[in-house]
Design a protein that fits this description.
292 residues; alpha/beta; three-stranded mixed beta sheet
Length: 292
């Protein structure tokens, strides 16, 4: 089964994601980047997730997205995160192996699972910034060696996705041939796709209609994400689509009512549109709904 991992930054986003998952009776992964943790503070994030668990009886994981170093991973492990990602993709192979192994050893001693990354995704998201010319696909043989040497529990790979709202300049294309080779070599290792938001056209259009300036944004079509799930991807990260939903709803409120200044008046429709977006992903793209 394919699971969506949705990035969180504040209370409204957490509420929207968990409410959507509860409506669809779906497990869900909430993930926070190191910059989101700096913004929201780790204690607040943890307590808000605990509040969500008290309100809804669904499986919820709290995951560190793109952990930049051992110290950040350790902080999240020590603060009750279910899983952490160590992103050593900016280093050479042996350095990435050594860093990932250090995190794996500590995490496993605490009962926490580890996602790692091999290959570089282009694009910009939070603290991740990789030029297109520096991006590289994951090598299947290296992927097998990497997992064997590190003992990581899941692996994020590069097959053509990228971070941010501008994923493709021309036709959207993913290297499913590379994915197939990696799955053949690692049949029991969950594979993760980063930078895989759809960049929903209706949300981009809504942002631009109400004063935004996001021309030519293009993401990974839903059909490709569905094909990825059938080809062995277990986890897909979603961040940009949530940002677009929140921004579009807030822009619309301000455009239609310039006198609005009560945060509840513009954060409520923002939360509602994020929930609608997440429900669409769960039901129509990821297929993680588990309704009787």
């Amino acid at each position: 089964m394919l699971f969506g991992a949705f990035n969180v930054n504040n209370m409204e986003i957490i509420q929207a994601i968990v409410d959507a998952a509860a409506k669809e009776n779906s497990p869900v992964i909430l993930q926070a980047s190191s910059s989101a943790i700096k913004y929201a503070r780790i204690g607040y994030l943890r307590k808000m997730v605990e509040a969500a668990l008290e309100e809804h009886d669904i499986p919820v994981a709290l995951h560190l997205d793109h952990g930049p170093d051992f110290e950040t991973c350790k902080m999240c492990i020590d603060n009750g995160f279910s899983s952490v990602m160590i992103d050593g993709s900016k280093y050479d192979f042996e350095e990435n192996v050594a860093l990932t192994k250090q995190v794996v050893d500590y995490a496993h001693s605490k009962g926490v699972v580890v996602e790692a990354e091999l290959g570089k995704l282009a694009g910009v998201e939070d603290d991740v910034n990789v030029d297109a010319q520096d991006a590289m696909y994951t090598d299947p043989d290296q992927a097998k060696e990497f997992v064997e040497k590190t003992g990581c529990d899941s692996l994020a790979i590069a097959i053509g996705t990228s971070h941010g709202a501008y994923k493709f300049k021309g036709e959207a294309k993913l290297r499913f041939d590379i994915l197939q080779k990696i799955k053949e070599k690692l049949p029991n290792t969950p594979i993760v796709l980063h930078g895989a938001s759809t960049v929903i056209p209706e949300l981009v259009e809504m942002c631009n209609k109400y004063g935004g300036n996001i021309p030519g944004a293009k993401g990974v079509p839903d059909e490709m994400l569905h094909e990825a799930s059938l080809s062995g991807v277990s986890k897909i990260n979603v961040d940009t689509d949530l940002r677009l939903a929140m921004t579009a709803a807030i822009r619309k409120t301000f455009a239609e009512d310039p006198s609005a200044f009560d945060p509840r008046k513009y954060m409520t429709p923002a939360r509602d549109l994020i929930q609608e977006t997440v429900q669409h992903k769960i039901k129509n793209v990821f297929g993680s709904t588990n309704k009787a």
